[in-house]
Amino acid sequence: MKKVIVVGATGLVGETIRNILEEREFPISEVKFLASSRSAGKEILFNGKSHVVKALSGDEFDGFDIAFFAAGSDVSKEYVPIAAEKGVRVVDNSSYFRMDENVPLVVPEVNPEAIKESDYIIANPNCSTIQCMAPLFQINKHYGIKRVVFSTYQSVSGSGVKGLKDLDEGIQEFYPFPIKGNVIPHIDSFLENGYTKEEMKMINETRKILGIDDLKVTATTVRVPVRFAHSVSINVETEKDFSVDDVKELMDCKLGMKLMDDVSNLVYPLPIFAEGKDEILIGRIRRDESLEHGLNLWSVADNIRKGAALNAVQIGELLLRS
Fold it and tell me: CA of 310: how far to CAs of 16, 79, 125, 156, 306, in Å?
């Protein structure tokens, strides 16, 4: 049994972490929920008991074992090191530590061995990255990967409640343009190379998780008017030839994936099928006939549940054994 903290417990990801901890019966002897001063004092029902949300401070981590952070990079920058110094093993959902060479970046189905007993900070990858790692891991393991092209179709819940509000109310408060009835090829801020931070996250995180530092990767990330679940078109150039049927077999009920690929019966992954689900839905698997060894596939997953909260809790489960 562990003493567990959830930081950012009242947000979309924090709430989902709480729900998954209950569903998966995470062994908890004591739990504490932390958030900003605006949310302090709220009551949360967890495992049949009412808990009062406390304001985040460095003193709240004493005596605890595991902390799930779901409160953004600024909060993680300040408080994750404090928690780690107090002997708390931290699973951080922000982007702040992901590319730190001393911090493992983990998708439990793909690289659980990255976590060592000496690691007190473990980074949770970007939501869009997470749903692409299991299929790419399988492809790389069996055929080798030369190049990857990501094109994402990301739901507004990736921006939190502000993104949902813009879509649901048909307003423009958070995004630079209206999102209702629109598609915006702009997620996070633009960098000098013309890419966005979101695109570079996918590029760099893919290399780190797969352990291929020189892997050729490019990405275009796009916000679409969908409430929950991100979709990603993944184009892969492999080292060796493959059969499409064999690739489908590698995706079918493997590493948290569910194959939905029967186009003759209009079976393929959609956001409405993924919302609220744990599985990564994979379909539209076909050859890229413009390449000698080219492959296309389509990945859909709930970005809040699988792309953030579930992956974090699965990392926590790994920490129970290390």
Answer: 8, 22, 12, 19, 5
H or E stretch at 250: helix 244-251
Sequence-distant (≥ 6) Cβ neighbours of residue 2 within 8 angstroms: 26, 27, 28, 29, 65, 66, 320
The CATH code for residues 128-302 is 3.30.360.10
DSSP annotation of 27: -
Question: What share of the chain has pLDDT > 90, as a percent?
Answer: 99
Q: Of 91, 104, 110, nearest to 256 (Cα)?
A: 110
pLDDT at 121 over 80: yes
The rounded distance, in Å, linking the Cα atoms of 226 and 220 is 17
Distance separating alpha carbons of residues 60 and 73, to the nearest angstrom: 19
- Report, as an integer, the average pLDDT of 5-12: 97
Is residue 131 scored above 80 in pLDDT?
yes
| CATH superfamily membership of 2-125+308-321 | NAD(P)-binding Rossmann-like Domain (3.40.50.720)
Residue 205 contacts residue 215 (beta carbons within 8 Å)? no
Residues 132-153 have pLDDT tens digits of 999 999 999 999 999 999 999 9
Q: Is the pLDDT of residue 322 over 90?
A: no
Pairing mode, strands 216-220 and 145-153: parallel
Q: Distance (Å, rounded) from C-alpha 13 to C-alpha 157?
A: 10
Residues recognised as catalytic: 127, 230
Strands 54-55, 28-35: pairing kind: parallel
Q: Determine the number of helices (DSSP H) and then strands (DSSP E) in the chain.
A: 8, 14
| Of 319, 256, 276, the residue nearest 23 (C-alpha) | 276
Question: How far is it, in rounded angstroms, from Cα 254 to Cα 218?
Answer: 26
Where do the structural domains in the chain lie, given as residue ranges?
2-125+308-321, 128-302
